[in-house]
Write a structure and sequence with these properties.
With 350 residues, the chain is α+β, with helices and mostly antiparallel strands. The chain has helices at residues 18-28, 64-72, 108-117, 127-131, 156-165, 194-202, 268-284, 309-316, 320-337, 344-348, and strands spanning 2-7, 32-37, 41-43, 49-55, 77-82, 88-91, 122-124, 150-153, 170-174, 184-186, 207-210, 220-226, 229-230, 232-233, 236-237, 239-243, 260-263, 288-294, 297-302. It has three domains: 2-124, Rossmann fold (3-Layer(aba) Sandwich); 136-143 and 214-318, ATP-grasp fold, B domain (D-amino Acid Aminotransferase, Chain A, domain 1, 2-Layer Sandwich); 149-210, Dna Ligase, domain 1 (2-Layer Sandwich), CATH 3.30.1490.20. It is globular.
């Protein structure tokens, strides 16, 4: 299969990224894998979508770092390819990373992928579904009973009233942020700094204010869903517990904010939550997503380049990345045998 991967920028990729794990798995399974940054795309007068792409030499790779070195090295294949001739296009760029420095790049992957999709290229996750999820407001489209109480506004007085209603507790975060940047825990002792925290988040646009869940002191659970159901490999769930490392000074559970990974216990409560989000994910063609769960609440849903397979595979000792590639192979085989009558969303969730 010919697999294209769109990332923010090839030069900013890391070996520990889930994208790299998926790419090396596909390459080692004998597939042709092309990398492109969002700045490398073009729509040509021939009405096809093209990309200035790179791929590694055909051989087995034992380490993700070596794979990336080969991709960026002089022996890699660099070529202007026709995206419409790919079997699959993976959208693995995170629009939140481009909000400030490259706002023009935020929707580039989605928009060019839509054009490729017209020529029967399977696009994962579905670009029309992703267009609905370009910020954290997407969470509000899921069932009310699994979401924390939330306010989204730029009105400072409304934010302070919400915090007061919750006895001085709450969480502030930017609507379009990622990686734990400008995320603040508000408690009764931080009232004197509340205005400063609000202003810091407001620099990025709209502000999300969520109720604080006491269970957050234990960290959160990241659970991956594939084709709308919990991803499993050899009886192991693709899930782990993100444990806070910095005591009361930093409540964030993001790995980029210093959290560590531990094995997760997948309870019936977590599986019930996953079942409640499944219909919406299927409707939107969200092939691979990561759910961030605290207690019985869904705090965030990661649909753009959901990551952390490096921790999953170390903790559980099974190749979840291979499981994802095998699922994609199945979609390609199905599309080849059934050329008519199936939308990209339907193929995405087979």
């Amino acid at each position: 299969m010919r697999l294209g991967i769109i990332v923010n920028d090839i030069q900013t990729e890391w070996g520990e990224y889930t994208t790299t794990h998926l790419a090396i798995a596909a390459t080692n399974l004998g597939h042709e894998v092309w990398y492109m940054g969002v700045a490398d795309l073009a729509y040509e007068p021939d009405e096809n979508t093209h990309g200035y792409a790179r791929r590694v030499a055909d051989k087995k790779y034992r380490s993700c770092d070596a794979y990336l070195d080969a991709l960026r090295g002089k022996k890699s294949h660099s070529e202007r390819i026709n995206l419409d001739e790919l079997d699959v296009l993976l959208l693995r760029n995170d629009p939140a990373d481009d909000v400030n420095a490259r706002p023009w790049a935020r929707l580039a992957g989605i928009n060019f992928a839509r054009l490729a999709m017209r020529h029967e290229v399977i696009v994962l996750n579905d670009p029309n579904g992703l267009a609905q999820a370009v910020n954290k407001m997407y969470l509000q489209t899921f069932p009310k009973e699994i979401r924390p109480r939330t306010l989204i506004t730029r009105n400072r007085a409304e934010i302070k009233h919400f915090i007061a209603e919750h006895n001085g507790w709450g969480v502030l975060k930017p609507l379009a942020g990622s990686g734990g940047r400008n995320v603040f825990l508000i408690n009764p002792e931080s009232g004197a700094n509340l205005s400063q925290m609000i202003e810091a988040v407001a620099t990025e646009g709209y502000i999300i204010v969520q109720e604080y869940l006491p269970e957050a002191v234990k960290g959160d659970t990241r659970l991956f869903l594939m084709n709308g159901t919990p991803l499993q490999c050899k009886g192991h769930y693709a899930a782990f517990q993100r444990v806070r490392q910095n005591g009361d000074n930093d409540f964030r559970s993001n790995m980029t904010a210093g959290a560590s990974a531990a094995k997760a216990v997948i309870t019936d409560e977590i599986l019930q939550l996953a079942e409640l989000v499944r219909p919406k994910l299927v409707q939107d063609g969200m092939f691979l997503v990561g759910l961030d769960i605290i207690g019985n609440k869904l705090m965030e849903i990661n649909v753009f380049s959901p990551g952390c397979f490096v921790y999953l595979e170390k903790l559980e000792g099974v190749p979840f990345s291979h499981e994802v590639i095998h699922a994609i192979e199945h979609k390609v085989e199905y599309r080849q045998k059934n050329q008519q009558g199936f939308s990209n969303i339907e193929i995405s969730m087979l």
